[in-house]
């Protein structure tokens, strides 16, 4: 027995304690903050009950970061800030400083190094995104590429606060939708039932589990060419792709059949209205890498209509609720089709059961 | 250096041309492609080899509009989860990145770092992985992306030595998220760090040795602005709130009106209150009908100096949020409208409740069913009964509209309600 032969047992430390990494002013005033304001886009100013103040400068990152980028961000943090960093839920980086005089040079440095300063208040913040072709095992599209394209397009709206309220955009590379709900959600929408490789199903898939996974009971066991396999009732199939993760021989992706749908009006916050799910705006946009021009065009139209017409503090979904869906489709130039009428469980509750009509 | 330069090599091999990815290097937003190329061109020898083939495979995906990774089974010694294994389906063309596993690592609660720890991450991942790290994945993990099976163990050992632990993957307790909260936000209504660490660290076995029916997520937001998207995304959402009156600084109200004007203030604060609980008096003081206020946070968001949450703070707990698979999107349902969270006993009570919910999930959910789906299947009353929670009007938008229910024990249930009301009012009810 050598020592090298003994594997190291993990130290189950769990969630790390953040206090050793936290800015000293945040640590000192933990739970005792008084108010905040935003002196300019990308900057938060918090004042504690003790009178202590802290300034936060927020900047966009590419989320998928190489060690050179991370070290550059650390160098900036050491030279221009106080060495303490945090990230937001949307992968923006935040530097905290104890002196207002440090804010302007920090902003200047971040901008010079190509990190846009913004993402606060009524801006379009970073797109929350998934893994896509870079790392996922079931993706219909890329994530980082779509996000890069969208944020290039929306850069000006990130660095200023000129939207009616904050705009949260999400992307997802399959219909599981890891990206979550958004004011605008750019999500893969499959359009064809899975193509089944019957030679592989028996060896790769646990067939009863795959049958159970289907939300519309469209999959059943079958013998195909003398081999145990699965078959799909294509009239019932809703092309959701739920069978694909447990059974990769049921290929849901196709170079042409994987499309993009755009959804609007999702909201996490409880401010004013209750949280909402996003609703379908348009489907069947092409998965046109590397620039996704059709997607960018629609997102741009929606953003522009909202920016022009919504009242201050109205989120996307609240704006649409006020103006009505017919005006939303008119203003954005998008089509309203039978596919916008929900057919899933609870669909009836999404219908207008009143005489309230928008003209 | 742009691709297509035929003279360029990595470790004696030609650099893969990446014409599709090259187009994602222009524009004002930071480019992940430029970062990947920098690892290929300037990284350590192993980073360069991995990244050349990784870029080649990614460009291949852009060209074919298909993904080329498949899953598998990789773990570290002593744990059953926390690694996302990826094996390339086009390894013959791109052999150096044929294994490209991700370590999901739990960040400090609230995502606080200093530059020293971030540099240590870089050193470890440069040595044992590809040099590519994401801050953060949608579950809230730091994602150390791209290493082989051997590197997985080495990187974990090194990260574990400096106090970091793997997060969740598969049918298990997942990594949690908490907002900045108490550390910097005056709207925070409870100690998010303590709640987050208390619950997750008491349930670590469910994270590291996956044996639940499916995933289970906790998220912690300090107020109803819900900055970590808990209601949509967490099986167990903890949202800060308060039960006494909103605090008003009338001088600051007047200053706000002086600055923005009466009309704007009425349009953006008074008229946007979801329960019409706010009115502006003729002398520009603000009046709030607190029993009608639903703690939505809007007016406090607009008037950050004039208004703030009350002093009697605590949490609400909402159960069952999830995304589409299998029965469709669900938001969390209000299950505990209010609970104090200040003393050690309060935190013990929260921990016990969280453990009970997870235990209920483990015992009752079907395979691949989220707890929200279980509740849908069995009905909220059965869930409440199992967790010994009394029904509360705050759990519903409105009472049932369907008459299809058997009500012969209605009077017994009503008695429980009146007893509880009496108890809450501080009255002693005899056992009779």
From TrEMBL, chain A:
Cellular compartments per GO CC: sulfite reductase complex (NADPH)
Span of domain 4Fe-4S ferredoxin-type: 228-257
TM regions (residue ranges): none
MF annotations from Gene Ontology: 4 iron, 4 sulfur cluster binding; dissimilatory sulfite reductase (NADH) activity; electron transfer activity; heme binding; metal ion binding; sulfite reductase (ferredoxin) activity; sulfite reductase activity
Enzyme class, broadest EC rank: oxidoreductase
Xref: Pfam families: NIR_SIR, NIR_SIR_ferr
UniProt EC number: 1.8.99.5
A biological process from GO: sulfate assimilation
UniProt entry keywords in alphabetical sequence: 4Fe-4S, Iron, Iron-sulfur, Metal-binding, Oxidoreductase
Name under which the protein is recorded: Dissimilatory-type sulfite reductase subunit beta
Organism: Marimonas arenosa
Gene from which the chain derives: dsrB
From TrEMBL, chain B:
The UniProt record lists the keyword Phosphoprotein: no
Renumbered residue ranges of the record's region Disordered: 1-29
Domain annotation Nitrite/sulphite reductase 4Fe-4S: ranges: 170-389
GO molecular function, one term: 4 iron, 4 sulfur cluster binding
Record-annotated membrane-spanning stretches: none
NCBIfam families in the cross-refs: dsrA
Taxonomic superkingdom: Bacteria
Biased composition (Basic and acidic residues): 1-23
Annotated organism of origin: Marimonas arenosa
Protein name from the UniProt record: Dissimilatory-type sulfite reductase subunit alpha
């Amino acid at each position: 027995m050598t020592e090298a032969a003994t594997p190291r047992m993990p130290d189950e430390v769990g969630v790390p304690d953040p206090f050793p990494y936290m800015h000293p002013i945040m640590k000192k005033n933990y739970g005792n903050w008084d108010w905040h304001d935003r002196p300019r886009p990308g900057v938060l100013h918090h004042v504690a009950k003790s009178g202590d103040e802290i300034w936060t400068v927020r900047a966009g990152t590419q989320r998928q970061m190489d060690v050179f980028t991370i070290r550059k961000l650390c160098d900036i943090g050491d030279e221009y800030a106080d060495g303490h960093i945090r990230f937001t839920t949307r992968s923006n980086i935040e530097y905290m400083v104890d002196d207002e005089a440090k804010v302007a040079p920090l902003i200047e440095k971040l901008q010079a190094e190509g990190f846009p300063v913004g993402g606060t208040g009524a801006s379009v913040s970073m797109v929350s995104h998934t893994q896509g072709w870079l790392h996922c095992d079931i993706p219909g599209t890329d994530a980082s590429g779509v996000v890069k394209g969208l944020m290039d397009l929306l850069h000006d709206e990130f660095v200023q606060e000129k939207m009616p309220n904050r705009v949260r955009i999400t992307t997802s590379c399959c219909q599981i939708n890891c990206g979550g709900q958004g004011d605008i959600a750019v999500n893969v929408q499959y359009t064809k039932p899975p193509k089944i490789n019957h030679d592989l199903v028996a060896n790769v898939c646990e067939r009863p589990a795959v049958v159970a996974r289907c939300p519309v009971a469209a999959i059943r066991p079958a013998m195909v060419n003398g081999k145990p396999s699965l078959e799909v009732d294509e009239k019932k199939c809703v092309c959701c792709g739920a069978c694909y993760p447990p059974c990769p021989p049921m290929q849901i992706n196709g170079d042409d059949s994987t499309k993009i749908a755009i959804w609007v009006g999702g909201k996490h916050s409880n401010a004013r209205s209750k949280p909402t799910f996003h609703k379908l705006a348009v489907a069947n946009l092409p998965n046109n890498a590397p620039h996704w021009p059709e997607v960018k065009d629609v997102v741009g139209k929606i953003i522009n209509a909202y920016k022009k017409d919504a009242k201050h503090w109205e989120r996307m979904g609240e704006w649409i609720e006020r103006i009505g869906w017919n005006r939303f489709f008119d203003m954005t130039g998008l089509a309203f089709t039978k596919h916008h009428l929900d057919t899933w469980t609870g669909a009836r509750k999404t219908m207008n059961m009143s005489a309230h009509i928008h003209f | 250096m742009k691709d297509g330069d035929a003279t360029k090599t990595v470790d004696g091999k030609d650099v893969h041309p990446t014409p599709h990815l090259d187009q994602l290097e222009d524009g004002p937003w930071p480019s992940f492609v430029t970062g990947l190329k920098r690892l290929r061109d300037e990284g350590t020898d192993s980073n360069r080899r991995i990244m050349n083939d990784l870029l080649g495979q990614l460009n291949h995906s852009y060209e074919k509009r298909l993904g080329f990774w498949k899953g598998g089974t990789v773990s570290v010694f002593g744990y059953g989860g926390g690694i996302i294994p990826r094996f390339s389906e086009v390894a013959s063309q791109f052999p150096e990145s044929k294994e490209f596993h991700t370590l999901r690592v739990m960040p400090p609660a609230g995502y606080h770092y200093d530059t020293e720890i971030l540099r240590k991450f870089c050193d470890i991942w440069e040595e044992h992985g590809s040099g590519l790290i994401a801050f953060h994945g949608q579950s809230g993990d730091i994602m150390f992306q791209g290493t082989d099976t051997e590197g997985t163990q080495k990187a974990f050992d090194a990260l574990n030595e400096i106090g970091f632990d793997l997060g969740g993957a598969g049918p298990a307790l997942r990594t949690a998220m908490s907002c900045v909260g108490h550390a910097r936000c005056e709207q925070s209504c409870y100690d998010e760090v303590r709640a987050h660490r208390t619950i997750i660290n008491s349930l670590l076995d469910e994270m590291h040795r996956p044996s639940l029916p499916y995933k289970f997520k906790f998220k912690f937001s300090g107020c109803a602005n819900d900055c970590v998207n808990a209601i949509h995304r967490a099986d167990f959402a903890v949202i800060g709130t308060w039960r006494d009156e909103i605090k008003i600084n009338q001088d600051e109200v007047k200053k706000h009106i002086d600055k923005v004007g009466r009309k704007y203030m009425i349009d953006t604060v008074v008229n946007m209150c979801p329960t019409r609980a706010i009115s502006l008096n003729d002398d520009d003081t603000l009046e709030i009908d607190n029993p009608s206020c639903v703690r939505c946070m809007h007016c406090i968001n607009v008037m950050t100096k004039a208004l703030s949450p009350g002093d009697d703070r605590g949490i609400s707990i909402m159960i069952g949020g999830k995304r589409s698979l299998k029965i469709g999107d669900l938001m969390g349902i209000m299950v505990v409208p209010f609970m104090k969270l200040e003393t050690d006993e309060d935190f013990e009570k929260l921990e016990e409740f969280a453990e009970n919910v997870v235990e209920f999930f483990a015992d009752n959910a079907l395979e691949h069913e989220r707890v929200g789906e279980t509740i849908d299947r069995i009905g909220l009353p059965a869930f409440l009964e199992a967790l010994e929670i009394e029904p509360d009007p705050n759990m519903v938008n409105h009472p049932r509209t369907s008459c299809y229910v058997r009500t012969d024990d209605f009077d017994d249930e009503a008695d429980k309600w009146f007893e509880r009301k009496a108890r809450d009012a501080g009255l002693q009810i005899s056992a009779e």
